[in-house]
Design a protein that fits this description.
Number of strands: 11
Order of helices and strands: EEEHEHHEHEHEEEHEE
Radius of gyration: 16 Å
Strand order of the largest sheet: 1-2-3-4-5-6
Shape: globular
Structural class: alpha/beta
Helix content: 10-25%
Length: 194
């Protein structure tokens, strides 16, 4: 079961597995009360969230991760993201926003090529792929049922507008090779693939 939680500028997704649940992305720091309202609206308890995963470490995707970790929710960190965990620290500091930097030493580190087995252990069938055209740490979560969570990957409908953007083309070739049925974006409505 998939729940879309919209409480700011970033779509957040909750995926229920048979033995664990995954939250994909959070919004900006300071949105915790709004996040709680969305949990209640969707009949999700904070304790239902086993892992939180960021599609990339920009401030509008990781603002609540430290707070969620304090509540006992595990951070799922992908190997391609390690050096970018603190990318947003200075942005939050400059904007004078109350924010605690993420303690990556407490994260569960998983390599992309090991992600299928890791997700399977939660009862979620799928994998995590590196899709670095937006930022080098960007990943996409591709479920076997055809549901694909691509974060800030530029929408496929805009692909023709970019001349010689081979990184973006490569990312979409990779996602499309998984035969997606629905693409879930962080900042746009989902797209049903025909």
């Amino acid at each position: 079961m998939i729940s879309k939680l919209k409480y700011g500028n970033t779509n957040t997704f909750f995926i229920r597995g048979t033995s664990g649940n995954l939250l994909i992305d959070t919004d900006y720091a300071g949105t915790l009360p709004l996040f709680y309202k969305q949990l209640k609206k969707n009949r999700i308890k904070l304790s239902d969230i086993t892992y939180v995963l960021a599609t990339h470490y920009h401030p509008d995707h990781i603002g609540l991760i430290s707070e969620l970790m304090e509540f006992g929710i595990n951070l799922l960190l992908i190997d391609t993201q390690i050096e970018y965990v603190h990318f947003s620290d200075e942005i939050f500091n400059k904007d004078n926003i109350k924010y605690t930097p993420i303690n990556e030493k407490k994260a569960f580190l998983v390599k992309c090529e090991e992600s299928r087995a890791f997700l399977h252990s939660m009862g979620i069938q799928g994998e995590i792929l590196s899709t670095p055209s937006h930022s080098k740490d960007s990943i996409s979560v591709i479920l076997d049922n055809g549901f694909c969570f691509v974060g800030d990957l530029e929408p496929i409908d805009y692909l023709d507008a970019y001349e010689k953007n081979t990184k973006l083309e490569d990312d979409w070739k990779l996602v499309m090779s998984c035969n997606p049925k629905i693409i879930f974006y962080a900042h746009a409505n989902e797209k049903i693939m025909v």
